[in-house]
Amino acid sequence: MQKTMPAAQTRKHWTKPKVAAFFAALAAGRPEPQTELAYDNAFQLLVAVVLSAQSTDIGVNRATRELFKTVQTPEAMLAFGLEKLIGHVRTIGLFNTKAKNVLALSEMLVRLHGSEVPRDREALEALPGVGRKTANVVLNVIWGEETCAVDTHIFRVANRTGLAPGKTPLAVETGLMAIIPQPYRRDAHHWLILHGRYICVARTPKCDECTVKSLCPWPRQQKRAMYVTELHDNGK
User: Fold this and answer.
1) What is the pTM of this model?
2) Are 42 and 142 in contact (CB under 8 A)?
3) What is the pLDDT of residues 215-225, one digit of tens each?
4) In a domain, 195, yes or no
5) Sign of the C-alpha dihedral, residues 23, 26, 31, 37?
6) Could you tell me how far CA 56 lies from the centroid of its own chain?
7) Could you tell me if 135 and 59 lie in one domain?
8) Does 40 participate in catalysis according to the annotation?
9) Residue 189 to residue 35: CA distance in whole angstroms
10) Average pLDDT, the chain
11) Predicted confidence (pLDDT) per residue in 32-80, tens digit
12) Which is it for the CA torsion 110, 88, 57, 176, positive or negative?
Protein backbone atom coordinates (compact mmCIF):
# COMPACT_ATOMS: atom_id res chain seq x y z
CA MET A 1 0.00 0.00 0.00
CA GLN A 2 1.37 3.41 -0.97
CA LYS A 3 1.77 5.89 1.86
CA THR A 4 0.33 9.30 1.09
CA MET A 5 1.21 12.59 2.71
CA PRO A 6 -1.78 14.46 4.14
CA ALA A 7 -3.27 16.84 1.58
CA ALA A 8 -2.74 19.92 3.73
CA GLN A 9 0.90 19.00 4.33
CA THR A 10 1.39 18.38 0.60
CA ARG A 11 0.00 21.77 -0.37
CA LYS A 12 2.15 23.49 2.22
CA HIS A 13 5.36 21.73 1.20
CA TRP A 14 5.17 21.68 -2.61
CA THR A 15 5.22 25.32 -3.55
CA LYS A 16 5.62 26.21 -7.24
CA PRO A 17 9.34 27.02 -6.83
CA LYS A 18 9.96 23.67 -5.12
CA VAL A 19 8.11 21.73 -7.82
CA ALA A 20 10.10 23.54 -10.52
CA ALA A 21 13.35 22.84 -8.66
CA PHE A 22 12.38 19.15 -8.30
CA PHE A 23 11.95 18.66 -12.05
CA ALA A 24 14.95 20.84 -12.86
CA ALA A 25 17.11 18.52 -10.76
CA LEU A 26 15.71 15.41 -12.46
CA ALA A 27 16.22 17.04 -15.87
CA ALA A 28 19.83 17.90 -15.05
CA GLY A 29 20.53 14.24 -14.33
CA ARG A 30 18.85 13.01 -17.54
CA PRO A 31 18.69 15.88 -20.08
CA GLU A 32 17.15 13.69 -22.81
CA PRO A 33 15.18 10.89 -21.13
CA GLN A 34 13.90 8.06 -23.30
CA THR A 35 11.65 5.08 -22.87
CA GLU A 36 13.59 1.92 -22.14
CA LEU A 37 11.37 -0.12 -24.46
CA ALA A 38 13.11 -1.04 -27.74
CA TYR A 39 11.26 -0.14 -30.95
CA ASP A 40 11.84 1.17 -34.47
CA ASN A 41 8.46 2.68 -35.32
CA ALA A 42 5.10 3.64 -33.81
CA PHE A 43 3.54 0.23 -34.39
CA GLN A 44 6.36 -1.58 -32.63
CA LEU A 45 6.17 0.84 -29.71
CA LEU A 46 2.42 0.27 -29.43
CA VAL A 47 2.96 -3.50 -29.38
CA ALA A 48 5.77 -3.21 -26.83
CA VAL A 49 3.68 -1.09 -24.47
CA VAL A 50 0.73 -3.49 -24.72
CA LEU A 51 3.09 -6.35 -23.88
CA SER A 52 4.64 -4.43 -20.99
CA ALA A 53 1.55 -4.42 -18.75
CA GLN A 54 2.53 -6.14 -15.48
CA SER A 55 5.91 -6.96 -17.04
CA THR A 56 9.33 -5.32 -17.05
CA ASP A 57 10.79 -3.41 -19.98
CA ILE A 58 13.80 -5.74 -19.87
CA GLY A 59 11.55 -8.76 -20.22
CA VAL A 60 9.60 -7.20 -23.08
CA ASN A 61 12.76 -6.20 -24.94
CA ARG A 62 14.09 -9.72 -24.59
CA ALA A 63 10.86 -11.12 -26.05
CA THR A 64 10.61 -8.64 -28.93
CA ARG A 65 14.27 -8.56 -29.97
CA GLU A 66 13.87 -11.25 -32.64
CA LEU A 67 10.17 -10.58 -33.23
CA PHE A 68 10.73 -7.00 -34.33
CA LYS A 69 13.43 -8.05 -36.81
CA THR A 70 10.66 -9.81 -38.75
CA VAL A 71 7.57 -7.79 -37.85
CA GLN A 72 7.52 -4.04 -38.50
CA THR A 73 3.90 -3.48 -39.61
CA PRO A 74 0.37 -4.57 -38.70
CA GLU A 75 0.17 -6.57 -41.94
CA ALA A 76 3.37 -8.41 -41.07
CA MET A 77 2.00 -9.16 -37.59
CA LEU A 78 -1.17 -10.65 -39.04
CA ALA A 79 0.88 -12.75 -41.47
CA PHE A 80 3.12 -13.85 -38.60
CA GLY A 81 0.12 -15.35 -36.81
CA LEU A 82 -0.88 -16.13 -33.26
CA GLU A 83 1.11 -19.35 -32.80
CA LYS A 84 4.44 -17.79 -33.80
CA LEU A 85 3.71 -14.65 -31.79
CA ILE A 86 3.00 -16.68 -28.65
CA GLY A 87 6.27 -18.48 -29.21
CA HIS A 88 8.11 -15.17 -28.93
CA VAL A 89 6.21 -13.65 -26.00
CA ARG A 90 5.49 -16.67 -23.78
CA THR A 91 8.07 -15.45 -21.24
CA ILE A 92 5.89 -12.39 -20.55
CA GLY A 93 3.05 -12.46 -18.04
CA LEU A 94 -0.45 -12.95 -19.47
CA PHE A 95 1.15 -13.77 -22.83
CA ASN A 96 -1.89 -15.54 -24.31
CA THR A 97 -4.22 -12.60 -23.76
CA LYS A 98 -1.61 -10.08 -24.85
CA ALA A 99 -0.80 -11.99 -28.03
CA LYS A 100 -4.49 -12.14 -28.96
CA ASN A 101 -4.81 -8.40 -28.31
CA VAL A 102 -1.78 -7.64 -30.50
CA LEU A 103 -3.31 -9.59 -33.40
CA ALA A 104 -6.70 -7.94 -32.87
CA LEU A 105 -5.29 -4.41 -32.72
CA SER A 106 -3.20 -5.12 -35.82
CA GLU A 107 -6.36 -6.10 -37.70
CA MET A 108 -8.10 -2.91 -36.55
CA LEU A 109 -5.16 -0.74 -37.59
CA VAL A 110 -5.26 -2.25 -41.09
CA ARG A 111 -9.04 -2.08 -41.40
CA LEU A 112 -9.76 1.28 -39.78
CA HIS A 113 -6.58 3.35 -39.83
CA GLY A 114 -4.71 2.58 -43.04
CA SER A 115 -2.21 0.49 -41.07
CA GLU A 116 -1.08 3.60 -39.17
CA VAL A 117 -1.10 4.11 -35.41
CA PRO A 118 -3.65 6.91 -34.87
CA ARG A 119 -2.67 10.15 -33.18
CA ASP A 120 -5.93 10.27 -31.29
CA ARG A 121 -6.60 9.18 -27.74
CA GLU A 122 -10.11 7.89 -28.37
CA ALA A 123 -9.01 5.85 -31.38
CA LEU A 124 -6.02 4.44 -29.50
CA GLU A 125 -8.07 3.44 -26.48
CA ALA A 126 -10.56 1.68 -28.77
CA LEU A 127 -7.83 -0.79 -29.76
CA PRO A 128 -7.77 -4.15 -27.92
CA GLY A 129 -5.39 -4.15 -24.97
CA VAL A 130 -4.88 -0.38 -25.09
CA GLY A 131 -5.87 1.66 -22.05
CA ARG A 132 -5.18 5.21 -20.97
CA LYS A 133 -1.60 4.49 -19.85
CA THR A 134 -0.66 2.85 -23.16
CA ALA A 135 -2.26 5.67 -25.12
CA ASN A 136 -0.37 8.22 -23.03
CA VAL A 137 2.94 6.50 -23.76
CA VAL A 138 2.34 6.41 -27.51
CA LEU A 139 1.12 10.01 -27.68
CA ASN A 140 4.10 11.20 -25.65
CA VAL A 141 6.93 9.14 -27.16
CA ILE A 142 5.89 9.22 -30.81
CA TRP A 143 4.38 12.70 -31.06
CA GLY A 144 5.81 14.52 -28.08
CA GLU A 145 2.44 15.31 -26.54
CA GLU A 146 2.35 16.40 -22.92
CA THR A 147 0.94 13.31 -21.27
CA CYS A 148 1.83 11.40 -18.13
CA ALA A 149 1.47 7.61 -18.24
CA VAL A 150 1.10 6.63 -14.59
CA ASP A 151 2.65 3.22 -14.01
CA THR A 152 3.52 1.63 -10.67
CA HIS A 153 6.73 3.70 -10.40
CA ILE A 154 5.08 7.07 -10.98
CA PHE A 155 2.21 6.10 -8.70
CA ARG A 156 4.68 5.33 -5.92
CA VAL A 157 6.82 8.45 -6.40
CA ALA A 158 3.81 10.77 -6.59
CA ASN A 159 2.33 9.37 -3.38
CA ARG A 160 5.55 8.92 -1.43
CA THR A 161 6.80 12.43 -2.12
CA GLY A 162 3.37 13.99 -1.90
CA LEU A 163 3.78 15.61 -5.32
CA ALA A 164 0.40 14.33 -6.44
CA PRO A 165 -1.16 11.94 -3.93
CA GLY A 166 -4.04 9.87 -5.21
CA LYS A 167 -5.74 6.51 -4.81
CA THR A 168 -5.98 5.80 -8.54
CA PRO A 169 -3.62 6.26 -11.51
CA LEU A 170 -6.04 8.80 -13.02
CA ALA A 171 -6.09 10.85 -9.81
CA VAL A 172 -2.28 10.87 -9.75
CA GLU A 173 -2.09 11.76 -13.45
CA THR A 174 -4.54 14.64 -12.99
CA GLY A 175 -2.62 15.90 -9.97
CA LEU A 176 0.73 15.77 -11.71
CA MET A 177 -0.45 17.49 -14.87
CA ALA A 178 -1.87 20.27 -12.72
CA ILE A 179 1.48 21.08 -11.10
CA ILE A 180 4.24 20.17 -13.59
CA PRO A 181 5.55 23.45 -15.03
CA GLN A 182 6.88 24.19 -18.48
CA PRO A 183 9.35 23.26 -19.88
CA TYR A 184 9.13 19.93 -18.06
CA ARG A 185 5.68 18.69 -19.04
CA ARG A 186 6.70 16.66 -22.09
CA ASP A 187 9.45 14.65 -20.39
CA ALA A 188 8.20 14.58 -16.79
CA HIS A 189 6.74 11.11 -17.19
CA HIS A 190 10.13 9.67 -18.21
CA TRP A 191 11.96 11.37 -15.34
CA LEU A 192 9.44 10.10 -12.80
CA ILE A 193 9.43 6.53 -14.16
CA LEU A 194 13.22 6.30 -14.20
CA HIS A 195 13.48 7.90 -10.76
CA GLY A 196 11.03 5.37 -9.36
CA ARG A 197 12.66 2.47 -11.17
CA TYR A 198 16.22 3.13 -10.03
CA ILE A 199 16.20 5.48 -7.00
CA CYS A 200 12.80 5.83 -5.32
CA VAL A 201 12.32 2.06 -5.35
CA ALA A 202 9.49 0.27 -3.59
CA ARG A 203 11.06 -1.44 -0.59
CA THR A 204 13.95 0.77 0.44
CA PRO A 205 14.29 4.04 -1.45
CA LYS A 206 17.90 5.00 -2.17
CA CYS A 207 17.69 8.41 -0.54
CA ASP A 208 21.48 8.70 -0.24
CA GLU A 209 21.73 8.59 -4.05
CA CYS A 210 18.75 10.85 -4.70
CA THR A 211 19.36 14.13 -6.55
CA VAL A 212 16.13 15.62 -5.20
CA LYS A 213 16.59 14.54 -1.57
CA SER A 214 16.93 18.11 -0.35
CA LEU A 215 13.50 18.93 -1.78
CA CYS A 216 11.67 15.73 -0.88
CA PRO A 217 9.83 15.57 2.48
CA TRP A 218 9.97 11.77 2.62
CA PRO A 219 13.35 11.34 4.38
CA ARG A 220 12.36 13.84 7.06
CA GLN A 221 8.97 12.19 7.43
CA GLN A 222 10.67 8.83 7.93
CA LYS A 223 13.07 10.28 10.50
CA ARG A 224 10.17 11.75 12.46
CA ALA A 225 8.40 8.37 12.44
CA MET A 226 11.56 6.65 13.68
CA TYR A 227 12.00 9.29 16.41
CA VAL A 228 8.42 8.82 17.63
CA THR A 229 8.91 5.04 17.64
CA GLU A 230 12.09 5.38 19.70
CA LEU A 231 10.33 7.60 22.23
CA HIS A 232 7.52 5.08 22.50
CA ASP A 233 9.93 2.15 22.87
CA ASN A 234 11.79 4.03 25.63
CA GLY A 235 8.61 4.73 27.49
CA LYS A 236 8.78 8.49 26.97
Assistant:
1) 0.87
2) yes
3) 999 866 554 43
4) yes
5) negative
6) 11
7) yes
8) no
9) 10
10) 90
11) 999 999 999 999 999 999 999 889 999 999 999 999 999 999 999 999 9
12) positive
Exposed, middle or buried, 18 (CB in 10 Å: 0-12/13-18/19+)?
A: middle
Cα separation, 175 vs 196, whole angstroms: 17
Does 37 fall in a domain?
no
Instruction: Answer yes or no: 213 catalytic.
Output: no
Q: Exactly one of 84, 100, 133, 213 is catalytic; which is it?
A: 133
Which three-class secondary structure string do you get for 172-230? HHHHHHHHCCCCCCCCHHHHHHHHHHHCCCCCCCCHHHCCCCCCCCHHHHHHHHHHHHH
* Distance from C-alpha of 220 to C-alpha of 165, rounded to nearest angstrom: 18
> Per the residue annotation, which of 3, 18, 151, 213 is the catalytic one?
151
Report the length, in residues, of the chain.
Answer: 236
CA distances in angstroms from 131 to 53, 105, 125, 137, 203, listed in the order given: 10, 12, 5, 10, 28
- 175 in Cβ contact with 158 (< 8 Å): yes
Please check whether residue 142 is in contact with residue 34, taking contact to mean a CB–CB distance below 8 angstroms. Answer: no
CATH at residue 186: 1.10.1670.10
CATH number for position 72: 1.10.340.30
Is 2 inside a domain boundary? no
Query: Helical H runs in the chain?
Result: 7-13, 16-29, 42-52, 57-70, 74-80, 82-89, 95-113, 121-125, 132-143, 152-161, 169-179, 188-198, 218-233
| Domain encompassing residue 131 | 42-143
